[in-house]
Amino acid sequence: MRRGRRAVAVVCGAVALAVPLVAGGGGTARAAGSCNVTTGPYQRQVEQFLGRPADGVQSAADCQAIKAFQAKHGITPTAGYAGALTWQTMSTMLAQRAAGTNPNKDGTCPVNLGRIACVDLTRQLSWVQDGATLAYGPVPVRTGKDGTETRTGLKRIYHRSIDHWSTIYDVSMPYAQFFDGGIAFHSVEKSMWNPPGSGGCVNMRPADAKAYWNLLAKGDDVYVYGRKPGT
């Protein structure tokens, strides 16, 4: 354990795992420095998302636009191919946008418990409710990957560590708020759409993790539901 930091054993981490260098739909994957000119199985949908001419046929310009999106969010191989993982990431973004300012429209997250942090794994969204009032969010989050999924159910914050250090993964976990064993809200310096996900924790952008730190307290409820795409 490093001096000057509080640490407890945790099961979640912020280290991304590499995705194998493959491309679905019969396309040929290329190295990260090249561009795959093969038309992908989600070509038209990806073109529409990126504001490209949606003709469903890969072009050099399409490839560069897709490649830039992949590079921004750490999607590998970063070769400009419109494959399943790229479209899954975009689909999640679209679902998040559709949530607007009423993420609990379906009433799944209980609002009769006072202040509660809601985590929707399906849409990879989180927000804080004060009863029926939306107190913060919704904001994108990055939850557990396949095999280390963020567990669902009603939880409660039991430990907080503003400058936490994971002794298991040897990584910083600022604004850590633990609510289920070693699973915590905490900030990371990476895209919220970076696949495949965390080791179980609910990763947040630094500003959002700080806001949660200021809004929540030990003993506050956390409700996790849904299922993350790809798990």
From TrEMBL:
Residue ranges crossing the lipid bilayer per the database entry: none
Assigned keywords, A-Z: Cell shape, Cell wall biogenesis/degradation, Peptidoglycan synthesis, Signal, Transferase
Gene3D superfamilies, sorted: L,D-transpeptidase catalytic domain-like (2.40.440.10), PGBD-like superfamily/PGBD (1.10.101.10)
One GO term describing the cellular component: extracellular region
GO molecular function (one): transferase activity
L,D-TPase catalytic domain residues: 114-225
InterPro entries assigned to the protein according to its UniProt record, in alphabetical order: LD-transpeptidase (IPR050979), LD_TPept_cat_dom (IPR005490), PGBD-like_sf (IPR036365), PGBDSf (IPR036366), Transpep_catalytic_dom (IPR038063)
Active site per the UniProt annotation: H186, C201
Pfam families assigned: YkuD
Pathway participation: Cell wall biogenesis; peptidoglycan biosynthesis
Signal sequence region: 1-31
GO-annotated biological processes: cell wall organization; peptidoglycan-protein cross-linking; regulation of cell shape
Listed name of the protein: L,D-TPase catalytic domain-containing protein
Species classification: Bacteria, Bacillati, Actinomycetota, Actinomycetes, Kitasatosporales
